[in-house]
Amino acid sequence: MSQTTSFTEIAEQNKVNAADRPQLRVTILGGGSFGTAMANLSTRNGCNTIMWIRDQATAKQIQTSRINERYLPDFKLEDQLLITSDLDFAVKDRDIILVAIPSHAFRSVIQKIAPMISGQAVISLTKGIEKDSFCFMSEIIREELPEVPYGVLSGPNLAKEIIEGMPAGTVIASHSEQVRLAVQQALHSALFRVFASDDVHGVELGGALKNIYAIAMGMAAAFNVGENGRSMLITRALAEMSRFAVKQGANPLTFLGLSGVGDLFATCNSPLSRNYRVGYSLGLGKTLDEAVAELGQTAEGINTILQVRHKAAQLDVYMPITNALYEVIFEHAPPLNIALSLMKNGHRSDVEFVLPHQEMS
Amino acid sequence: MSQTTSFTEIAEQNKVNAADRPQLRVTILGGGSFGTAMANLSTRNGCNTIMWIRDQATAKQIQTSRINERYLPDFKLEDQLLITSDLDFAVKDRDIILVAIPSHAFRSVIQKIAPMISGQAVISLTKGIEKDSFCFMSEIIREELPEVPYGVLSGPNLAKEIIEGMPAGTVIASHSEQVRLAVQQALHSALFRVFASDDVHGVELGGALKNIYAIAMGMAAAFNVGENGRSMLITRALAEMSRFAVKQGANPLTFLGLSGVGDLFATCNSPLSRNYRVGYSLGLGKTLDEAVAELGQTAEGINTILQVRHKAAQLDVYMPITNALYEVIFEHAPPLNIALSLMKNGHRSDVEFVLPHQEMS
What is the DSSP string of A171-232? Predict the structure, then answer.
């Protein structure tokens, strides 16, 4: 019995009985690997599911071949999943709209669907921060669709593993219980567990900020800091993230969950990720330009550092790791500053919210 | 410039000026690798430091050669560190006693020093649970030395890395601020950061319970669950640990710190640890006897599972991972039950204390 068979067996044993529930009409905007994985799950869960892809030729090709050649070339999609490039058709008369559009194009797509939205809930599947505005995806939804029930989905979710039927979990955060339940109905299954939270901003911050610490983890690897040092880095990163989030009204306990420590753990254990690799190059003493040239593309975390540092200064939040990274990348400080930034803040309380800080040595 | 040199340079830049502080008299009981590493740090910090080792010949040998052949054969100890097998001399007229004695011998040593204790603080450096009694080390101290100020030290602290001068952090937990400050004075340095907490039980539980989840992580590795699954496991483990701890009065936020998620992260990323290896063998379908025979010794986590399961039943705490491990190890359930235990509890709130549970499917 192969391992994959075993997981599949779990899925069979736990199969959702679609007949027990009213059929949900689910649309996924965006045909990247994660959007496609979610569209396929929703279809399997017995939902009437549409995936919208901007490019007409690509949509037609996937609709016919049942294969997303660019992102998931080895995987055949469920027969019932409908793929279209007709936005109006995809958005009107639906129950929930899951938006899996990259952060730089997120607002323009939300603006386009605004006239088509009546009672649909809109849920972001996108991690990241809008360039320049420092808007999170839920804020874009609120700004562009003020009356619409919304939510965000975030967690340690490598799409390739999900579509291969390996186990995973995620978090749906919304102030609306109806939205949480609808997303669970659409996506929750034996091998993809959807947990609920009402801390929208906390969940969203986890997904966006982790990219910063993946860079730091790559840099630490270049310095061979060892397991003790890696653990300290991930813990201080969690403290820094939650401090930043709490200042904005999030619940620190959210960071104990999948969208916080879970996503951070996965990211920091992925040495092949772009953020980690940029950090590693920087740790070897290369400049940002050299690191990015080597990688052949930029890393999301670089932009996140710039934005979070700016916002943290405004809010007066203490973020030594982010600041040290900024100084190394943009002010030519030695990479060892990262280690120093962890080391010099001793005698503080271990967890921010348990004991007040004691500034010493 | 080698990496090691760099860390050493940090240490030099941040060197504690011993002359500024009254000299602390510190004793470490036990000459294992962690006790030795702490004794060496305390000596470096300018404290008058004694390390007590039960065996007279070994004590003499280390005192003369300055090398702990059995545990840290490659490392020369500080000249000022005094090693003795005279317990009375080691314990009387001291400020703090750090106890680094294995859990099965911890109580007998505490009983022996009881008549020698006047004003000394007693701090446990030992992770684990006393067999049969389900006593943590701090409880043993409280039972045997009711009037004595006490604390526990716990964190992701591989002794070998610490003694080699690689960076690390730990947590001193005590209800007494004096104890916290004294331990920081003894051990805190540029490369070993000692953070403070007043959540003694939470800190101690993190160090003891992580062994359970190292077994689960090894088992998951045998099933090749992937990064999403590993992240879910570590997150659900944190939830389970904190649920158990909170029921006993601990602060859930402690688990965001070094002694919680930090230690769990280090443990779950150590595929060479005994717990992980036993779990891996069990995941391949071997029996506990076969797994232990292969390893050549038992794993602490096995005993911890038995005790925590028993205690959780008494306290009515929901611990699906621990229970599933018990069933696999002692009731011949298929190892896939671990995966099922993660998977079947969906629709619950992501983090226990944020949203109430919603039992569904």
Answer: EEE-S-HHHHHHHHHHH--SSEEEEEES-HHHHHHHHHHHHHHHHHHHHHHHTT-HHHHHHH
Question: Which residues of B are annotated as catalytic?
Answer: 210
Task: Give the number of A-B residue pairs with CB atoms closer than 8 Å.
Answer: 267
pLDDT top residue among B358 and B85: B85
pLDDT (mean) for B335-352 = 62
pLDDT of residue A361: 32
Binding residues of A for NADPH: 33-34, 54, 71, 127, 159, 274, 300
Per-residue pLDDT of B112-121, as tens digits, reads: 999 999 999 9
CB contact (8 A) between residue B235 and residue A256: yes
Domain A207-343: give its CATH superfamily: N-(1-d-carboxylethyl)-l-norvaline Dehydrogenase; domain 2 (1.10.1040.10)
ipTM confidence score: 0.88
**CATH pick for A3-198 out of 3.60.15.10, 1.25.40.10, 3.40.50.720, 3.40.630.30:** 3.40.50.720
Q: Show the beta-strand stretches assigned E in chain A.
A: 25-29, 48-52, 67-68, 72-76, 82-84, 96-99, 121-124, 150-154, 168-173, 192-197
B223: pLDDT strictly greater than 70? yes
H helical segments located in A66-191: 87-91, 103-113, 137-144, 159-163, 177-187
Of B188, B226, B257, the CB nearest to A347: B188
pLDDT digits (tens, 9 = 90+) for A243-261: 999 999 899 889 889 999 9
**Where in the sequence of chain A do the CATH 1.10.1040.10 domains occur?**
207-343
What's the gap in Å between the CA of B305 and the closest CA on chain A?
A: 22
Nearest Cα to A163, choosing from A69, A53, A35, A70? A35
Q: Where in chain B is the domain with CATH 1.10.1040.10?
A: 202-343
For domain B202-343, the CATH superfamily is N-(1-d-carboxylethyl)-l-norvaline Dehydrogenase; domain 2 (1.10.1040.10)
Could you tell me the pLDDT band of residue A96, with boundaries at 50, 70 and 90? very high
Residue B310 has pLDDT above 60, yes or no: yes
Instruction: Specify the domain boundaries for CATH 3.40.50.720 within chain B.
Output: 3-198
B-chain CB neighbours of A361 within 8 Å are 14, 16, 188
pLDDT at B37: 97
